[in-house]
Amino acid sequence: MVPAAVSVLMPTFDQAPFLPRAVDSLLAQDHGDWELVIVDDASPDATPVAVEAYLGDPRVCYRRLARNLGLGGALNVALGLASAPVIAYLPSDDVYHGDHLASLLECLEAEPGALLAYSGVRHHYNRRADGPVPGAGLQLVQVAHRRSADRWVERAELVTDDLDRMYWAKLRDRGRFVATGLVTCEWVDHPGQRHKLLQEPEGGINPYRQRFAVGAPLRFHTTVGNPIDEVAHYARFRDRPDTPPAADGLRILLVGELAYNPERVLALEERGHRLFGLWTDEPYWYNTVGPVPFGHVEDVPVEGWRERVRDLRPDVAYGLLNWQAVPFVHRVLDELDDVPFVWHFKEGPFICLEKGTWPQLVELYERSDGQIYTSPELRDWFATAVPSLACRSSSLVLDGDLPKRDWLDAPRSPLRSQADGEVHTVVPGRPIGLHPPDVEALARAGVHLHFYGDFTHGQWKGWIDTTRRLAPDHLHLHGQVDQGDWVEELSQYDAGWLHVFESRNRGELRSADWDDLNIPARLSTLALAGVPLIQRDNTGAGVATQSLVRQLGIGVFFTDFDELAGQLADRDHMAGLRAQTWRHREHFTFDAHADELVAFLRRVIAGGCHRR
To answer: What is the structure's pLDDT at 201?
Structure first.
């Protein structure tokens, strides 16, 4: 049998409603000498039914994978099944126009030495590109290329939305790319597109993990975010054996998501407690869900979870952490009426009001057997918002996403100020409340600002441009710093910025806003590195960070920027603050509070479940 002129590869996952439109656009091609290779990447929907209608055509080959391999793996399976000398691509949610294949093949033949031809493309409903989509690159649906021994990058190597890194760059090294100059296909815009699942903030590593039930740690890098190497980052935790269960060890069911510093929960496993994870099925990019990349937590499938939990017989359910998990955790609370339930909320009461999930949040507090608050201020605020909580004694104060102690062990660095005699301050994340004229005022006094977070830099481009005009020699930009580098990198600074704001609550927490109640993640990041914490002096107001930092004596409080510059220049004063902060580093680790948390869980268990 003579091979077809072109093999059209169709990777598909969970796109049964789109697939008939795509295949019909292939059937309508002016050029009919093709074969279609459909690789179903273990779709959970009715994809096999959608494909069945086309299997009577001898040109259509269908292979369903037993488990999801990801785009690169599915395409490599398709390449192995293809027989034609030219490869084209038709993702199951995209569309060919009638002359698409013919124009691509003609272009390849007309251009001596051409290895790949690409068409123009319609995208985002009514936009057109003569070549690669601006900001998104050359898409699968646009391309036909001569067969090659090269293979697509697979999930175990890298997860990315950058098709150039996945394959096109390999071909570019071997031959010319040529354009047809014609718009002959459509890259269909919809919420389920792969690049949207991958890119923060709508997507990200944790939504990707949840969507495809990825059980292994990932190397992940999109075109809009920082590289994430879970393989290397979590090796120290993942590669050690499970801790033998303690004689009085608890069986703890984690419900929801783990947000930042998720490996902190291993402090419980290291004490001989068994951890099980029942994860929200709609995480945000920073909502860590299972299978967790550091291991040692057994997952409970969302489908049929009630039966599995009955078999596991956990001692306590520990619901957490941020506002995105509230609806899911509330559903579990509704159904899990025979297990003591502890609710730990890190942030988002005002967002819950805005999003319409306030009723579920209130019920989580009222019906849970124990409550954990990030700060005394947040606890007291909830007592004003949910008056029935005021008489509760079953509560604990504990920051929800403190880092694991293991990251403390890196060496401390010399101060930058020792080299040039000027003051160097740092902001990891976003310079919230710190305006360009403020940076200019500090620069006049010889105070530098080092702004970390290359992804954040893009979001703050206007702020950066303005600040550079005002203080060109005193604003310094740096890339993202992982936990393992926090101490060595950030300890070189004289002080670090918390959010800068003027509280207006005058000591009445009922009028507090989120700035007043929040303990931002950067606080523990800076404290672990021994960096004193800068914040505006809000004496007389109820402010969580102010209370904590004053209690430990690790802060620089100011009312105006001239006063602040004077404090930062007082070397003896700052040396004392640095020494005090270094002494209190353990306080900002989850491990330092794990025994207290376990004791609280035991008290809740002893009190029993009261939701029946």
So the answer is: 87
Cα 86 to Cα 88: distance, rounded to the nearest angstrom? 7
SS3 (DSSP) at 373: strand
Length of the chain: 612
State which fold the 6-196 domain adopts.
Spore Coat Polysaccharide Biosynthesis Protein SpsA; Chain A (3.90.550)
Closest CA to 517 of 547, 473, 477: 547
Q: What are the sequence ranges of the domains in the chain? A: 6-196, 240-404+592-607, 411-588
Looking at the chain, the whole-number percentage of residues with pLDDT higher than 90 is: 92
Give the residue-averaged pLDDT of 35-42: 98
In this structure, is the dihedral angle defined by the CA atoms of residues 160, 164, 168 and 173, taken in order, positive or negative? Answer: negative
Burial zone of 110 (CB within 10 Å; 0-12 exposed, 13-18 middle, 19+ buried): exposed
DSSP per-residue string spanning 526-571:
HHHTT--EEEE--TTS--HHHHHHHHHT-EEEESSHHHHHHHHH-H
Query: Is residue 156 classed exposed, middle or buried when 0-12, 13-18 and 19+ CB atoms within 10 A define those classes?
Result: middle
Q: Which of 265, 316, 313, 314 is nearest to 289 (CA)?
A: 265
Q: In what order do the strands lie in the sheet with 274-279?
A: 298-299, 274-279, 251-256, 316-322, 341-347, 370-373, 395-397
**Rounded Cα distance, 596 and 397, in Å:** 10
**Structural contact between residues 53 and 20, judged by C-beta atoms closer than 8 angstroms:** yes
Fold match between 240-404+592-607 and 411-588?
yes
What CATH number has the domain spanning 240-404+592-607?
A: 3.40.50.2000
pLDDT in tens, 315-368: 999 999 999 999 999 999 999 989 999 999 998 899 999 999 999 999 999 999
Among 593, 486, 475, CA closest to 530:
486
Condensed to tens digits (0 to 9), the pLDDT of residues 271-328 reads 999 999 999 999 999 999 999 999 999 999 999 999 999 999 999 999 999 999 999 9
Give which of 249, 221, 254 is closest to 155, Cα–Cα: 221
Q: Which two tokens stand for residue 274?
A: 């068994």
Of 545, 580, 586, give the one whose Cα is nearest residue 404: 586
Helices (H), 199-337: 205-212, 230-233, 235-238, 266-269, 305-312, 326-335
pTM: 0.93
* Fold classification of 411-588 (topology level): Rossmann fold (3.40.50)
Q: What is the pLDDT of residues 568-607, one digit of tens each?
A: 999 999 999 999 999 999 999 999 999 999 999 999 999 9
Q: Which two tokens stand for residue 115?
A: 């290895």
**Under DSSP, is residue 60 helix (H, G, I), strand (E, B) or coil?**
strand
